[in-house]
Fold this protein.
Amino acid sequence: MGVLQKVSDFIMSPAMKLLLILLAVLFPLAAGNEYQIYVMALAFVWAIAVYGMNIVTGLCGQLNLAHGAFFAIGAYTLAILTVDNGWPFWPAFVAAGAMGALLGFLVGVVSLRLKEHHFAIFTLCVGFIIYLLMDKWESLTHGTLGIINIPAPHGFGLVDFTETTPFYYLALVFLVLSVFFASRISHSLLGRTFLAIRISDDLAASLGINLMRNKVLAFVLSTTYAAVAGALYAGMVRFIGPAEADVAHTFDMITYLLVGGIGTLMGPL
């Protein structure tokens, strides 16, 4: 963990940040084909979701096994509003993030009264319930058929986000913003508060930290990240189904976080 933290700190130095952004900007010019650009854009979208998991799990120490379900909530919110209700993409995108925050707050207020494996098991059940709702509530979610013809983000001028390369740069912008906000959180008093809670609830409480309020805040921040990533994903692949809420996606994200370095700024990416 110490080695990963040092590597992360080195990579996230100002010079390396600029170098990484430059390489990402130039990647489409060096890519062999459009599919490689598509895969990299998809990786950026998933990285945004994993940054959300890093807030609640890596910083605050709460293992949320419903994280993939909140990713799906963002995707379904955008899809339902745009396809079934005729909303433009960007208002629906904002609504998807807000829905992730709202449901995250409601689930967090209930689930965070539990600790450790009890909390993890409860959120696993929540994730499975969300999956069942998406699979069975056909009048709202279209059931197993899923939702097709989801619109891509509205472009501007000559920029058309239905094309792979412009969407790649859009995903890159959102990823950079996600890393920026994650960095501000981790280096702030709020981030140190989350770390104190991760180390010990009793220690944090003895320092005057409001455990419930800060745990819920970490949970809401993480689910908002997940919902935003899910909305971007829906606008990219243009089709979603109940499988997006499968718990396997949550375990994939946990794997990415563990391999990259849990609690580090560079780990999710």
Remarks:
- The chain has a mean pLDDT of 89.
- The CA atoms of residues 108 and 216 lie 5 Å apart.
- The chain has twelve helices and no strands.
- Residues 211-237 form the longest helix (27 residues).
